[in-house]
């Protein structure tokens, strides 16, 4: 044994007995260091044979099943065998056994490796071994005693050799490599298996064994006809052929992939709950609301994958519900093309068939066999469909049967209850009966059936227990933008993308209308036609919402009434107009079924809803609130007399519920004026201005937003003569000041279309010279253009422009502003052209912008400037030198106010600024450096400026600078406030880092006869109650009382 191959080297004079004792003692220690309770070779055998035993057990468990399936795929089957195979088509226990077999092999390999390195044989086996023993002559008994008592005697080291260690070390390495390599290989197999299982294309043991285990081409094995694959390939090529019509894809490119955008699809039906107390924007949000617990399906293929709504099972019966024009048909065609292209594993080995429910109304579908019925779903000839039919009937789980447009079936619900009794596929019956047998599983059991429908067919599809119910919600704003982009690409006009999209997003009404893909198409088509029409020399877009909605209604009238005569469509539209008007009068957005005839239902302007109280009764609403409002406006203009229209405007202009209706009325009146040139209609338009109230020459959208609404109505008229008459003969002639930003928190954001209306009207206000405008950071280029037009067409004395951005990326560019001001049509010596106040907030002021500003001031466009505010303009230390250059060229005596708050200018920049102010002899009285990240280090420079006899600063604000502490205030008190030439009367240090320690120096300064402070803001600092009391007491000092000193040091 191994003990015989273990020998130790002792002194030659040692006795044999001693050598034997040494060998035994050292071998015992060798065993303790290198061996374990489990014999090494026993561990080797266990490591090698355990996975073999597991594999044998697995093969014995699945052998019979594998052989059975392998033989069945190579030999013809009897009908009984085929039936038995159908019954077992969902069995997958072979794949489960295989998974557990692989997992056990991975775990065993990892376990044996860990045990080898950490428990049994962590050190391997060394050939040489050093053994420490007592000196020669000691007995074994004494040696044991000494071993238990460390340090009693000097031990001697003996070198031993184990000749069997080399062989054991070799096997140690071999076993380690085998276990590690085997675990790695099996782990890789486990990952591969999991990936294939996640998107598996097998649905039974047969396919798993054929495709995964045996590596055979499953489809080719299953098909009994050699030309089956050829037929399927031919069918796929037929599906992929371009067949789209121009009324769906508008452009020369006809491939569906060129225009298809993924819709927002959610499980469960969306419930539209309209409340009479809702505001208009809240009503818009209802259209895009989804059930709280629904699941968003990101891609088309997700329709066929399991999820929580199917309890983890693959759905076999799917219903897709959507409003008219929402994209149901395009979705089904996308599925067909995805299947034919084989872009996802869910279509692997499947055969898709496509039906339209409108076909069931044809005579051919009144009495038809299953085979003929299915052939219609492929459009193939009898010869090519024969092999496909045999394959589908044998493997029904391979079929994806798509039925589009359940609402288009003209039959009644009785067919759902009275089906022909036999489930024989050879028996002929109606097409709808075959559909019901397919959806209920009586025919082609296991096939995947997908049905699309408008909500109007709820009484039909509610009778079927679908595995998955989803509703198409439509487009989000980013999808609308993507649609516009692809639309322009399809028409080979990439240059029109920005114009079309900016026009859509500039109007919230228009943007919300486009959530329905077909509406998005209509709007895109109308705008595209206007931009690309060679007869339209100006390439002008529809200037009013009325023109756009008129075109949309005309499109619906043309395409949805193609089967009706013109008179019928006109009658239906008039009925819808009356219904829309009455609905808004009574605050009704949802209507009962009995109010609609068949022609009205086919208009394409309605969406059907299920009644939450009586599910059997169907209800309707217009596809969008704006459509209902436009139809209501048409009813007013077409049926009311001019006098009655005026009274209607007077009585409804105060109600926000009617605002868009009135705006549409204004647009329709404009059309009447152009057509008939009647003053009666002019008076109707002027009726809108009676709502305008001008106080002291000012109008403020924040105080009365309806003023903007009046301007939008006048703009909708689209008649310069009418607008000029309104501005000259009404109170609008008295307007001097226009504002939509009273404060930084009280603003009214205007869209591009709003600005277009403001510009269209304000250019005729001859007295308008003051503008205080808030510009949204999301304002489009078209919006900036409108503001620029307004600045160029008005003689501005005071201009305050405020953006609303809280990050640098949201700042508004300032270059365009000054370019617009420099292009002003006013002459330089015009009394109104001299700007006295320029207030810019949240503009991006760069060095380039400052250069343009320098040019602006050099040309004396602002020679009367009194106040300059560059608040939150992204100015840093890099731009401060350029700003000082700007101050150097504008030594205007009227310039007294400079606000640079909320810019990261830092201490060094304050020093540079102070030097510039000192040497330019400016008459500056107000300097604001709030929230500029400055600290005590900038105070000396400010003190030098303040005590200069030429400095006129009376107000200094450094609020919200935490770097200013007690030391900074001490320097201000000693070196500035107590100086004779310091003219400071107001000091604002809100939310700095001041404590009670600064109070003694502050008291000395306030009591000094040279100190002129009468207002001191210390709110938000860290004063104690004792400190605040001390400061209150100083107000009673004679010098403080004389100048009316006021403290503000409230709560933080």
TrEMBL record:
The keyword Transmembrane does not apply. Keywords: ATP-binding, Cytoplasm, Nucleotide-binding, Repeat. GO terms for molecular function: ATP binding. InterPro entries: Connexin_N_sf, LRR_dom_sf, NACHT_NTPase, NLRP_innate_immun_reg, P-loop_NTPase. It is found in: Cytoplasm. Its main location: cytoplasm. The keyword Repeat applies. One of its GO terms (cellular component) is cytosol. SUPFAM superfamilies: P-loop containing nucleoside triphosphate hydrolases, RNI-like. This is Uncharacterized protein. It comes from Paramuricea clavata (Red gorgonian).
């Amino acid at each position: 044994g191994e003990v015989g191959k273990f020998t130790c080297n002792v002194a030659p004079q040692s006795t044999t007995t001693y050598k034997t004792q040494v060998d035994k003692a050292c071998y015992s220690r060798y065993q303790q260091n290198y061996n374990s309770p489990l014999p090494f070779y026993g561990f080797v055998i266990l490591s090698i044979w355990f996975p073999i035993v597991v594999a044998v057990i697995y093969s014995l468990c699945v052998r019979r099943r594998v052989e059975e399936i392998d033989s069945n795929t190579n030999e013809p089957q009897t009908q009984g065998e085929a039936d038995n195979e159908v019954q077992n088509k969902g069995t997958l226990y072979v794949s489960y056994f295989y998974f557990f077999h692989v997992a056990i092999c991975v775990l065993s390999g990892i376990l044996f490796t860990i045990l080898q390195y950490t428990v049994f044989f962590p050190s391997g086996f060394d050939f040489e071994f050093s053994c420490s023993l007592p000196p020669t002559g000691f007995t074994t008994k004494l040696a044991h005693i000494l071993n238990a008592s460390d340090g009693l005697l000097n031990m001697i080291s003996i070198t031993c050799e184990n000749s069997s260690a080399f062989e054991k070390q070799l096997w140690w390495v071999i076993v380690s490599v085998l276990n590690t390599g085997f675990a790695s290989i099996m782990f890789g197999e486990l990952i591969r298996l999991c990936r294939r299982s996640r998107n598996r294309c097998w649905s039974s043991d047969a396919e798993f064994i054929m495709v995964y285990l045996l590596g055979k081409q499953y489809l080719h094995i299953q098909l009994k006809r050699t030309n089956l694959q050829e037929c399927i390939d031919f069918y796929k090529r037929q599906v992929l052929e371009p067949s789209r019509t121009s009324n769906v894809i508008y452009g020369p490119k006809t491939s569906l992939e060129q225009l298809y955008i993924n819709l927002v699809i959610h499980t469960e039906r969306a419930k539209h709950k309209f409340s009479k107390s809702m505001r208009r924007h809240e009503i818009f949000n209802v259209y895009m609301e989804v059930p709280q617990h629904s699941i968003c399906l990101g891609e088309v293929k997700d329709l066929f994958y399991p999820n929580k709504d199917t309890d983890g099972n693959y759905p076999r019966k799917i219903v897709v519900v959507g409003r008219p024009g929402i994209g149901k048909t395009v979705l089904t065609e996308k599925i067909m093309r995805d299947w034919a292209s084989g872009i996802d594993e869910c279509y692997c080995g499947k055969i898709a068939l496509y039906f339209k429910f409108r076909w069931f109304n044809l005579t051919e579908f009144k009495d038809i066999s299953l085979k003929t019925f299915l052939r219609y779903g492929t459009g193939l000839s009898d010869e090519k469909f024969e092999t496909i039919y045999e394959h589908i009937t044998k493997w029904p789980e391979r079929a994806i049967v798509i039925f589009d447009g359940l609402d288009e079936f003209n039959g009644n619900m009785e067919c759902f209850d009275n089906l022909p009794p036999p489930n024989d596929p050879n028996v002929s019956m109606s097409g709808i009966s075959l559909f019901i047998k397919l959806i209920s599983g009586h025919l082609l059991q296991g096939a995947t059936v997908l049905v699309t429908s408008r909500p109007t067919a709820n009484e039909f599809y509610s009778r079927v227990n679908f595995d998955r119910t989803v509703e198409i919600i439509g487009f989000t704003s980013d999808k609308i933008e993507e649609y516009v982009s692809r639309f322009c690409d399809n028409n080979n006009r990439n240059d029109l993308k920005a114009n079309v999209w900016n026009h859509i997003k500039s109007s919230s009404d228009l943007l919300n209308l486009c959530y329905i893909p077909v509406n998005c198409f209509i709007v895109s088509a109308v705008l595209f036609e206007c931009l690309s029409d060679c007869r339209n020399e100006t390439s002008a877009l529809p200037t009013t919402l009325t023109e756009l909605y008129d075109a949309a209604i005309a499109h619906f009238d043309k395409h949805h009434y193609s089967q009706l005569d013109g008179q019928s469509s006109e009658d239906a539209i008039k009925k819808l107009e009356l219904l829309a008007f009455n609905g808004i009068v009574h605050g009704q957005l949802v209507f009962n079924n009995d109010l609609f005839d068949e022609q009205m239902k086919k208009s394409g302007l309605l969406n059907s809803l299920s009644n939450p109280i009586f599910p059997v009764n169907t209800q309707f609403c217009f596809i969008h609130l704006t459509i209902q409002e436009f139809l209501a406006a048409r009813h007013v203009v077409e049926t009311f007399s001019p006098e009655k229209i005026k009274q209607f405007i007077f009585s409804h202009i105060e109600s926000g519920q009617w605002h868009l209706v009135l705006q549409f009325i204004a647009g329709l009146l404009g059309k009447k004026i152009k057509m008939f040139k009647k003053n009666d209609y002019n008076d109707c338009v002027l009726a809108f201005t009676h709502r305008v109230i001008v106080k002291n020459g000012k109008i403020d959208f924040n105080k009365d937003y309806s003023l903007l609404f009046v301007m939008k109505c006048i703009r909708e008229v689209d008649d310069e003569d009418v607008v000029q008459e309104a501005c000259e003969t009404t109170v609008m002639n008295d307007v001097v000041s226009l504002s939509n930003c009273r404060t930084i928190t009280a603003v009214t954001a205007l869209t591009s279309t709003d600005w277009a209306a403001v510009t269209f009207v304000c250019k005729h206000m001859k007295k308008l010279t003051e503008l205080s405008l808030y510009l949204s950071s999301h304002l489009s280029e078209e919006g900036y253009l409108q503001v620029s037009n307004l600045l160029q067409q008005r003689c501005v004395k005071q201009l305050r422009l405020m953006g609303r951005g809280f990050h640098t990326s949201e700042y508004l560019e300032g270059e365009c502003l000054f370019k617009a001001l420099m292009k002003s049509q006013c002459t330089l010596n015009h009394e109104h052209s001299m700007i006295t106040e320029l207030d810019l907030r949240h503009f991006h002021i760069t060095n380039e912008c400052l250069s343009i500003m320098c040019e602006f001031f050099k040309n004396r466009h602002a020679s009367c400037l009194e106040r300059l505010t560059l608040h939150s303009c992204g100015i840093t230390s890099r731009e401060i030198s350029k700003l000082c250059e700007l101050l150097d060229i504008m030594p205007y005596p009227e310039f007294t106010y400079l606000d640079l708050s909320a810019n990261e200018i830092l201490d060094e920049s304050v020093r540079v600024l102070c030097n510039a102010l000192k040497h330019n002899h400016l008459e500056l009285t107000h300097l604001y450096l709030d929230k500029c990240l400055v600290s005590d280090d900038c105070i000396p420079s400010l003190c030098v400026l303040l005590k200069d006899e030429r400095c006129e600063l009376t107000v200094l604000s450094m609020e919200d600078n935490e770097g200013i502490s007690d030391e900074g205030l001490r320097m201000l008190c000693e070196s500035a406030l107590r100086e004779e030439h310091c003219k400071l009367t107001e000091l604002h240090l809100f939310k700095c880092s001041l404590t009670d320690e600064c109070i003694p120096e502050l008291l000395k300064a306030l009591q000094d006869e040279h100190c002129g402070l009468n207002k001191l803001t210390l709110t938000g600092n860290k004063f104690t109650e004792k400190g605040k009391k001390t400061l209150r007491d100083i107000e009673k000092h004679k010098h403080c009382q004389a100048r009316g000193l006021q403290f503000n040091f409230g709560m933080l």
